[in-house]
Amino acid sequence: MFSLFDPVFRNLISAYATSDREAERARLRAEGADFIEYEGALPADFDMLAVTENEDGLSFVVREPLPDACRLADTEFDRPAVVPEIPELPAGAVVIPAVGAALPSGLTTIVVRAPYHLDHHFRAYVETDDDRRAGLIAHAAARRDALIEGGVMFRGHRIASDNHCAMKVLRAMEAARRDPAWSTVWECADGSALPLAGEDIGELHDAIEANHDDAFARYTRTKASIVAGTITTTDEADAAMAAGA
């Protein structure tokens, strides 16, 4: 078996067998590849191993966890934020992105690597004031859409008000315009049935439009308060969206 390994951190990269070991050995040497040749099973899981060199040549070594102090937990930062210092780094360790590098808005995975040690990954989440406002505005928009599509009360019945239902109402209004004697029995969202004539369908359309306009009015008012900084939490956004005009 042949295993290629990383010349810096000495971690195994790939393992494979070949029927012509001599030719493969010559090829790898000609390419300047770092490799170890071995027989039998590996002494540990592939991703736990690195390659060391001693007086007997190359051999496997089991990689150790980084010191506890190096293994930082996932962290949230306010802006501005940079990759933090990592204490007790072993010799040859690197941090990617580098310590002190500016962290962008959002989620960044930081990798700590050191020769003969297992890599450690932790995540840094940076949220700006703009991010928080954008999140609250998106939350309010979702509440707006829920209000628009959540149905309307019409003559004691709950009528669906999503886009599909709104199109049905428009088609019914067109049918009623063409035929003054038009009528139907509308299947309501609560499972009941409601007889409707031409004049009724116009009133239902107005109720759905009023619900739509009210939802957008609540959203516009809530968004303005978020931008102004008077709403800063989802609970406050929910309360504002729940409040009528």
Main sheet properties: 4 strands, mixed
Number of strands: 13
Number of helices: 5
Q: How do the strands line up in the largest sheet?
A: 6-9-8-7
Question: What integer is the average pLDDT?
Answer: 92
Which structural class do the helices and strands define? alpha+beta
Strand residues, percent: 25-35%
Q: Any idea what the shape is? A: elongated
- SSE pattern, N- to C-terminal: EEHEEEEEEEHEEHEEHH
Number of domain modules: 3
**Terminus-to-terminus distance:** 75 Å
Share of helical residues: 25-40%
Low-confidence segments: none
Cα-based radius of gyration, to the nearest Å: 33 Å
In short:
This protein is 36% helix and 26% strand.
Key phrases:
alpha+beta, 245 residues, three-stranded antiparallel beta sheet, 5 helices, elongated
Mind sketching the topology for me?
Blueprint lengths: L1 E4 L6 E5 L4 H11 L3 E3 L11 E6 L2 E6 L12 E4 L15 E3 L9 E8 L6 E8 L1 H21 L2 E3 L2 E3 L3 H16 L4 E5 L5 E5 H31 L5 H9 L3
Parallel strand pairs: 6-9
Antiparallel strand pairs: 1-2, 1-3, 4-5, 7-8, 8-9, 10-11, 12-13
Helix pairs in contact: 2-4, 2-5, 3-4, 4-5
